[in-house]
Amino acid sequence: MDINTDDVFHPPVKRSITIAGHQTSITLEPLFWKLLRAAAERQELPVNALVAQIDVKRLDADDPPGLATAIRLWLTHDLLGNSAQAD
Predict the structure, then answer these.
(1) Measured between alpha carbons, how far apart are the two ends of the chain, in Å?
(2) What average pLDDT does the structure give for the chain?
(3) pLDDT tens for each residue of 2-48
(4) Using an 8 Å Cβ cutoff, are 29 and 10 in contact?
């Protein structure tokens, strides 16, 4: 995956995504969008499906964070080698 300084220090970008049959928007920095696409590719899932899995997991939390925060946390957890799948 190609990551440059512009991706690291770029402000968040809003994108539309469909999860659980409904359209929503998620605002993430380009670096996190790249990491999310790479994680979905590794798991052989569409990005929408991976986000849906992360969404279900976050809703199980006692105090669920927002979806964008949950994605960032899941990606960090994944990068640390602690998660092979969203569930």
Answers:
(1) 24
(2) 89
(3) 666 666 788 899 999 999 899 999 999 999 999 999 999 999 999 99
(4) yes
Q: Which two tokens stand for residue 7?
A: 């991706």
The CA distance from 86 to 53, in Å, is 6
Q: How many residues does the chain have?
A: 87
User: What does 6-73 look like in DSSP terms, one character per residue?
Assistant: HHHTPPPEEEEEEETTEEEEEEE-HHHHHHHHHHHHHTT--HHHHHHHHHHHHHTSSSPPPHHHHHHH
pTM of the predicted protein model = 0.84
- The answer to whether the beta carbons of residues 47 and 26 sit under 8 Å apart is no
